[in-house]
Write a structure and sequence with these properties.
Layout (H helix, E strand, L loop, with lengths): L1 H6 L4 E2 L12 H5 L15 H9 L22 H9 L12 E4 L5 H8 L5 E5 L2 H14 L4 E4 L12 E7 L8 H11 E10 L9 E5 L6 E5 L4 E3 L13 E3 L1 H10 L4 E2 L3 E3 L3 E7 L13
Parallel strand pairs: 2-3, 2-5, 3-4, 5-6
Antiparallel strand pairs: 1-12, 6-13, 7-8, 9-10, 11-13, 12-13
The chain binds S-adenosylmethionine.
The site of S-adenosylmethionine has 19 residues, from strand 3.
């Protein structure tokens, strides 16, 4: 697929993963894409489907909704993210519980439900996306608990999840570490992270005080940053707040309780895909990104 090739043009990996287990192969996962499944059980007529799609000003997720119709015309980033992360799933999901933070129209939630996940909770703060998720859920006749909720209020949740999906959300948060710590509290095994990042570049450098109280010195630091976005300078989108580099993402994940990390994978140079786990014997294959 041309789009996939374009997205993977600057793909690179580094740093070996820290756990081993053999799970879903890339070939197996490719046969489990939403688009390659049979017609959704509750597909509407062609006219009703098109009218519902057009009733929303904007779609971010490309989801197959029957009669040859997708919610978006062109392949989208989340499909590439899914292709990269799906092989890390265990061969049988066996009712795995999933929390999809910033679930949008529910692409990941539906995929995991169709593959055999048990409890799937999706939280989404934008009402139109929440409504899209509810509609797609009905079309696919899957039991997903979507909640119109801000990720900053995860502290009100007490449930536990095997997998937390945190894709395309970190840089939209005013307080990303607070949310990551809450996800660390709710997650029992693994988190999938995908985010905008400061690209890896040896020229990156900040001079900042480092050292002990008595020995503090302004020092050149080459990693471990997060850039504040005050306005709409990233993508013309005022809902963006912070762009971290890879080291910063990994450091925040460690602070949130995650200990084991996959190799980082870069899509389009400035998007990071990473798997982090709390467990050395995780059900997920962190080497899937190698
Ligand atoms: C770039 S999209 C990513 C959607 C999906 N997770 C994916 O990777 O394809 C960001 C999503 O996060 C949602 N979002 C942004 N800030 C949020 C917040 N504070 N709480 C919950 N959802 C949020 C947006 O409304 C949007 O649906």
């Amino acid at each position: 697929m041309q789009f996939t090739k374009r997205l993977f043009g600057t793909f690179k990996t580094s740093a070996p993963a820290t756990t081993t287990s053999v799970n879903v192969t890339k070939e197996e996962s490719a046969s489990k894409q939403l688009g390659s499944l049979a017609e959704p059980p509750n597909a509407l007529s062609r006219e009703e489907t098109l009218s519902l799609i057009r009733s929303f000003p904007f779609w971010y997720h490309r989801i197959y909704v029957g009669n040859g119709i997708y919610t978006l015309d062109n392949p989208a980033l989340h499909e590439v993210v899914w292709q990269k992360l799906c092989p890390s799933l265990p061969r049988a999901l066996d009712g795995m519980s999933v929390l999809d933070v910033g679930c949008n129209a529910g692409f990941f939630s539906i995929q995991l439900k169709l593959l055999g996940a048990g409890k799937v909770v999706g939280i989404e703060s934008w009402e139109d996306y929440y409504k899209q998720a509810e509609w797609c859920k009905k079309i696919w006749n899957v039991d997903i608990d979507y909640r119109l909720q801000d990720a900053h209020s995860l502290d009100t949740m007490q449930e536990k999840f095997d997998l937390v999906i945190f894709a395309g959300v970190l840089y939209h948060l005013k307080n990303p570490l607070q949310v990551l710590e809450q996800m660390g509290r709710l997650c029992e095994d693994t988190i999938w992270v995908e985010t905008e990042i400061i690209p890896e570049d040896p020229r990156n450098c900040l001079y900042v005080g480092q050292g002990t109280y008595k020995g503090i010195r302004v020092t050149a630091c080459h990693k471990g940053f997060m850039k504040f976005i005050e306005g709409d300078e990233l993508n013309g989108d005022p809902s963006n707040w912070w762009v971290p580099d890879t080291e910063c993402v990994i450091g925040m994940l460690r602070t949130a309780g995650f200990k084991y990390f996959s190799a980082p994978v870069y899509v389009m140079e400035r998007r990071l895909i990473l798997i982090a786990s709390k467990k050395s014997d995780s059900r997920f294959n962190l080497r899937a990104l190698d």
